[in-house]
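hiii so um. not sure if this is the right channel but i have a protein structure encoded as tokens and i wanna go backwards to a sequence. like what aa goes where. can anyone help
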């Protein structure tokens, strides 16, 4: 006896695709003069002077609160921001006092890092102000208590604004299988699983020591090198020596030079020619704001630029011989990376005779 069997199995359009996209954190602090520092962003309001209570209400309308200060680094940053953004002397902070006991309006923990009270303060008044400059216009950065009904400029703080993360979407198509069989003594089955691809996009933060600010992230290196070697190390890290094109970046790098490095000077990516006062940056862009040279700076000979934080409230620039060794600051763009994982199709065939 002879048995003949023919079995045909055709599988088409067997694909299951799942795509998940995470946009990563995108700061909107460039808008409306909000300046980021750590997990918050800050804005100096000076167009209309308000009472303490009115300022608190106005901050709330911005999705913010009057600023609370919980570290020396944040205190230095806020004082520097107020000094650079406004000609006014005093600004409301978000502190309330009962005697010498301080509380913050937003409920932040009170961390006594050595509060910078002015001489004679606190003196029994209930609301807290920042003195950003003294009567001569020089940077100060002290705190004083005051009657809450006085009208002053003020500083608001809110969490760094992020773009929402889209909900993952899944697209699938149904397997279509067509089978044709004639006189059969054998059965053949074919199963095909489709291809699944997952794509994600996240903000590049592969090293925790890179600190994001605006469109860049920064690396603060304590090791001391000459400027050429510092630039080579920054390039090896995927960046270059930091360039400064705004007062906000100047304040940020100055503050973090203190907080991260604890040194008075650090190389940035600028040089000056003999007798010149305009910086040539490694990115070939102009400074874009009034260059904050220190006294008797720059030198009358060619030099390399360091950020000088001997006065932490007003970081300045100095030029030094490029062969000298200093700590340094690198920067690189906050790029996004795309990772794709693919599960390939598998086919299994079984035959029963």
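sure thing!! here u go:
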């Amino acid at each position: 006896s002879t048995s003949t069997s023919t079995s045909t199995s055709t599988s088409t359009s067997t694909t299951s695709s799942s795509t998940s996209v995470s946009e990563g954190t995108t700061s909107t602090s460039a808008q409306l003069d909000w300046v980021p520092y750590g997990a918050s962003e800050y804005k100096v309001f000076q167009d209309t002077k308000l009472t303490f209570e009115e300022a608190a209400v106005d901050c709330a309308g911005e999705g913010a609160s009057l600023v609370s200060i919980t570290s020396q680094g944040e205190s230095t940053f806020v004082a520097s921001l107020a000094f650079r953004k406004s000609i006014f002397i005093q600004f409301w902070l978000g502190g309330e006092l009962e005697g010498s006991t301080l509380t913050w309006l937003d409920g932040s923990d009170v961390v006594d890092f050595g509060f910078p009270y002015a001489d004679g303060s606190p003196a029994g008044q209930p609301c807290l102000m920042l003195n950003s400059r003294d009567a001569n216009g020089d940077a100060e950065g002290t705190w004083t208590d005051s009657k809450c009904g006085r009208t002053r400029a003020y500083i608001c703080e809110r969490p760094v604004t992020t773009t929402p993360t889209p909900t993952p979407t899944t697209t699938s198509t149904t397997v279509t299988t067509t089978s044709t069989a004639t006189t059969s003594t054998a059965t053949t089955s074919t199963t095909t699983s489709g291809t699944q691809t997952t794509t994600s996009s996240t903000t590049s933060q592969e090293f925790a020591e890179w600190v994001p600010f605006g469109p860049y992230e920064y690396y603060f290196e304590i090791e001391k090198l000459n400027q050429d070697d510092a630039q080579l190390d920054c390039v090896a890290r995927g960046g270059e020596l930091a360039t400064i094109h705004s007062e906000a970046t100047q304040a940020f790098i100055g503050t973090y030079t203190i907080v991260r490095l604890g040194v008075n000077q650090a190389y940035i990516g600028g040089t000056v020619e003999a007798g010149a006062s305009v910086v040539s940056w490694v990115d070939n862009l102009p400074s874009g704001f009034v260059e904050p040279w220190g006294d008797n700076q720059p030198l009358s000979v060619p030099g390399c630029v360091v950020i000088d934080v001997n006065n932490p409230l007003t970081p300045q620039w100095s030029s030094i011989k490029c062969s000298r060794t200093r700590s340094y600051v690198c920067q690189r763009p906050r790029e996004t990376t795309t990772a794709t994982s693919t599960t390939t199709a598998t086919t299994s065939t079984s035959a029963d005779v």
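oh and The chain has a mean pLDDT of 76.
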